[in-house]
């Protein structure tokens, strides 16, 4: 048995099932049998077609063709015959669907996806055996090879491609889908075709990832011993605000004994140590646990992208291992990074720990850490499902109309300023931001709202006060909100009054028109209270209803 103290090993186990398709490669033996379809020239007799050397499968009279199994030599000879019009390799086809695996469902990224959270804008480096460059279900932005004497970051093992797919498989109706499909994926080939590598080459890969300004590094690899250079490198990652996720390790003895804690680098405090559970949410038999275990994730029967090391053919594979669990956690961190862009990595780690589903004894334990990792539900801590404003806020967040605050809140009951209303209205209507010189002396040209205020003035949606000011920071009233919405969406005239306290003022027509359109509503006592300030939730609902009305 090799000494595991100096070399790094993949944290994966054996493959269970492979399903490959694609073109024949030069690595396949000349004696291999291929499925082909042979087309014949017009007038070629059926007797000749059936006499062709090879294993006949189907005859197509309408095409004047046959499908066969032939070896390479037979195919070459067939192509030379004057009676043959063409020879095509038979292609594999599959249903136009992708598989949401049990691991995907267990970590619940679909909730985050309903809010548009897909990892967009988050940079992730997978330091592994490389990634298949041309796999149709992956979108790799670039890569590097840090192995001495080796070039190219293509995967010649399969492990790295599988890890990448758990993270980043594309929602393209094929294969499977990753936890963070819109994250920017970078491949670092630091492990060889056997899945082995040196710490020095892993560290070089981490240094390269720093230069790419990555947010997350996935290390689905293990070693038995701590080392000063690796520990310092990972501490530097933490200082730089880079999250590092590592596999806890499969239960391989180190120098003849089992470790009392997770393997390295998962054991370092600066790293999120990740163990594996099976589909019954029990600790996988092979998964190392211990005091340093942070969380667990699906690690058995994980279906993901793969490349066959011998043929180079892209496909999909079921694998087991803590290697497979780690990218689930990296993907969940990517969703959290997108949802909470102002969080520090310490805040992100706390968020993931707090949201984890407790599986063992209450609280953190050696088998499950803080529990099964879960994707974020939505980007706002104070917007919960079931509230009357939940769906409007969700829809407007997805299309980029509303944003929250740095502490991950929306503050639905908070008052909203006139400049914020114009900004949200401009985003809703996709107004082109105009010259930041608005003409209002109290609107600064470098203000985030200045361009939208200029555009809204040009469109006639807003105007200022008699003294020539706009009062951008003043809370907007319910009456003024109705006026802005009515000018922007042009609701039809109401023809009557809907509220007892709305009569004869500048906002009367706008309020009644918006009420008739179903955009605005009043209170139980029959009033609208036009002079009252508008809450952020009320504005979100009004904008949402206005968009719905205009799309009918």
TrEMBL record:
Residues in the signal sequence: 1-23
Top-level taxonomic group: Bacteria
SUPFAM superfamilies for the chain? Protease propeptides/inhibitors (SSF54897), Subtilisin-like (SSF52743)
Q: Which GO terms describe its biological process?
A: proteolysis
User: What CDD domains would the database entry show?
Assistant: Peptidases_S8_Subtilisin_subset
Under InterPro entries, the record lists: Peptidase_S8/S53_dom (IPR000209), Peptidase_S8/S53_dom_sf (IPR036852), Peptidase_S8_Asp-AS (IPR023827), Peptidase_S8_Ser-AS (IPR023828), Peptidase_S8_subtilisin-like (IPR050131), Peptidase_S8_subtilisin-rel (IPR015500), S8pro/Inhibitor_I9_sf (IPR037045), SLH_dom (IPR001119)
Residues in the active site? 128, 159, 323
Provide the GO MF annotations for this entry.
Answer: peptidase activity
Fetch the Gene3D superfamilies from UniProt.
Peptidase S8 propeptide/proteinase inhibitor I9, Peptidase S8/S53 domain
PROSITE patterns reported for this sequence: SLH, SUBTILASE, SUBTILASE_ASP, SUBTILASE_SER
Swiss-Prot/TrEMBL keywords? Hydrolase, Metal-binding, Protease, Serine protease, Signal
Q: Which Pfam families match?
A: Peptidase_S8, SLH
The UniProt similarity line reads: Belongs to the peptidase S8 family.
Please give the PANTHER family that the UniProt record associates with this protein: CEREVISIN-RELATED, PEPTIDASE S8
* Name of the molecule in the record: Serine protease, subtilisin family
Question: What is the species listed in this Swiss-Prot or TrEMBL entry?
Answer: Salimicrobium salexigens
Starting at the broadest rank, the lineage of the source organism is: Bacteria, Bacillati, Bacillota, Bacilli, Bacillales
């Amino acid at each position: 048995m090799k000494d595991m103290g100096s070399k790094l090993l993949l944290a994966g186990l054996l493959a269970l099932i492979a399903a490959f398709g694609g073109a024949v490669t030069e690595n396949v033996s000349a004696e291999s049998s291929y499925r082909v379809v042979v087309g014949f020239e017009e007038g070629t007799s059926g007797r000749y077609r059936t006499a062709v050397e090879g294993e006949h499968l189907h005859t197509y009279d309408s095409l004047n063709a046959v499908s066969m199994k032939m070896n390479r030599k037979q195919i070459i000879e067939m192509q030379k015959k004057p009676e043959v019009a063409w020879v095509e390799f038979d292609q594999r086809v599959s249903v136009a669907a992708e598989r949401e695996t049990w691991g995907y469902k267990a970590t619940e990224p679909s909730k985050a996806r309903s809010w548009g959270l897909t990892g967009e804008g988050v940079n992730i480096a997978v330091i592994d055996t490389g990634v298949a460059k041309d796999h149709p279900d992956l979108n790799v932005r670039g890569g590097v090879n840090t192995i001495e004497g080796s070039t190219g970051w293509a995967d010649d093992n399969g492990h790295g491609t599988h890890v990448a797919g758990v993270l980043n498989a594309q929602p393209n109706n094929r294969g499977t889908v990753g936890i963070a499909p819109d994250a920017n994926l970078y491949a670092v080939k630091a492990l060889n075709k056997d899945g082995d590598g040196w710490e020095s080459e892993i560290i070089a890969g981490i240094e390269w990832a720093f230069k790419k300004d990555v947010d997350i590094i996935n290390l689905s690899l293990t070693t038995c011993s701590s080392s000063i250079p690796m520990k310092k490198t990972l501490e530097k990652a933490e200082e730089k605000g880079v999250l590092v996720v590592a596999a806890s390790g499969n239960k391989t003895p180190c120098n003849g004994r089992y470790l009392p804690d997770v393997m390295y680098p998962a054991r370092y405090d600066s790293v999120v140590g990740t163990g594996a559970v099976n589909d019954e949410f029990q600790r996988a038999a092979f998964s190392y646990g211990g005091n340093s275990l942070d969380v667990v994730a699906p690690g058995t029967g994980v279906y993901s992208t793969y490349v066959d090391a011998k043929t180079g053919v892209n496909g999909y594979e079921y694998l087991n291992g803590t290697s497979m669990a780690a990218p689930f956690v990296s993907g969940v961190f990517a969703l959290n990074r997108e949802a909470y862009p102002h969080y520090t990595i310490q805040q992100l780690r706390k968020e993931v720990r707090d949201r984890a589903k407790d599986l063992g004894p209450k609280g953190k334990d050696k088998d499950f850490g803080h529990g099964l990792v879960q994707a974020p539900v939505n980007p706002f801590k104070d917007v919960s499902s079931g509230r009357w404003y939940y769906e409007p806020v969700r829809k407007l967040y997805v299309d980029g109309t509303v944003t929250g605050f740095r502490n991950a809140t929306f503050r639905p009951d908070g008052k909203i300023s006139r400049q914020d209303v114009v900004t949200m209205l401009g985003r809703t209507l996709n107004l082109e931001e105009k010259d930041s010189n608005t003409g209002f002396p109290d609107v600064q040209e470098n203000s985030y709202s200045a361009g939208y205020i200029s555009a809204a003035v040009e469109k006639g949606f807003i105007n200022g006060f008699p003294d020539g000011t706009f009062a951008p920071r003043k809370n907007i009233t319910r009456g003024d909100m109705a006026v802005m919405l009515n000018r922007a969406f042009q609701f039809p005239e109401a023809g009557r009054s809907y509220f007892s306290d709305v009569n004869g003022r500048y906002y009367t027509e706008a309020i009644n028109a918006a009420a008739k359109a179903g955009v605005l509503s009043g209170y139980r006592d029959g009033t609208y209270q036009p002079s009252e300030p508008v809450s952020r939730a009320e504005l979100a609902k009004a904008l949402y209803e206005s968009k719905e009305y205009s799309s009918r």
